[in-house]
Amino acid sequence: MKNVLLLVHDDVGQEARLQSALDVTRALDGHLTCLDVAIMPALVGDPYMADGGAILLQEERAREDDNRVHIRGRLEHEDVSWDLSAVTGDLAPCVREAAGLADLIVVNRKLDQFPYPDMTALVGELIVKSGKPIIAVPDTARGFNVAGKAIVAWDGSPASTAALQAATPLLKLAESVIIVEIDDGSVQTSARDAAAYLSRHGVHPLIRMEKARGRSAGEILLAEVRDRNGDYLVMGGFGHRRFAEALFGGVTRTMLAESPVPLFLAHG
Length: 268
Known about the structure:
Helices cover 40% and strands 23% of the residues. The chain is α/β, with parallel strands linked by helices.
């Protein structure tokens, strides 16, 4: 895991993304690829609002021109290898198309009190369609504590397996790793097997078996992060069929909405 792709855009979550991406790239001795996206306004393409759309697009591009100057100045003083490029278009397709050689993508889980751009929708699309693991950070984050306490959500699904395997290079750097298995009678591959996999990579996690007792998986994971002072959470993203998650919620949506710590997500 050496190639980290960072979304650059002048919004309230940019500082959180930047600091987290720098921490991860530095810890992995990797390369940071920064993609500045000037987002196409919704009015562009509407024949009745052509002039308004063109003005909004011009303003967006001007903001991102200034933003790149700012980010470039920041990166020149960081001890990481980096490059910076710019595109104009819809957010998710632009990031996805740039992710071909990325090992990891850094975005926000959502932007609190800031409805546009819709980062939660971006994360969902990237998890399912990019085939890459995602780090989704709160917009209040000021870094990613790679050497901190990692919590792994485990249900034995292909998604949780993919997340565990993808996160292993980071888990090897963690102070401690806790695997949380929520016992609802449906787990096919035990957390003990996940722990054995990690042990072969030099990671020796603690296993916690939690009974649901009427609580949702999201509630249990949020409590674990809080009670164990977790620094980040590794979990499978949208482990069930995506349209069912969209209709009925699910642990992924809960954690994207409420997690106080960065999420490491993969779909498998």
